[in-house]
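Attaching the record inline, Q. Sequence:
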Amino acid sequence: MPDVYLAPGVWVSEDALSFRASRSGGPGGQHVNKVASKIELRVPIHALVGINDAARTRLENLAGHRLLADGTLILIAQTSRYQLANREAALAKLAALVAQSLHPPTPRRPTRPTKASGERRLASKKRESAKKRQRGGSFDE
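Structure, as predicted:
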């Protein structure tokens, strides 16, 4: 069987992909009740070739609830009335998820507040303090 290319250097054998069609939900009248156009794509994450361990971990995190305990990723596509279009949409979702996992997140660079913002904060604190000091007398004296 031919391979399905998902991203540069990443592919999966078509044998590893499992498609299942069922009736789609939502409005559509008579048509939606008789046509199985919704597609459920199941692919084991370990079947992805060309993806490193770090990207695989990011993919597992991105998948979230769509990832089963056995490592199977489930993607559902039901935007179209046509089964073939939903099949392509499910593969596009898989490709987008894989492409997103290949790019490591940029690390956060810690920043410090500017001198001017620090001075503004302190001036504001002094104003608020003076305002509260001017309010009513104390009951202790």
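The helical segments are 30-34, 53-63, 83-102, 115-134. The CA atoms of residues 10 and 50 lie 5 Å apart.

More tomorrow.
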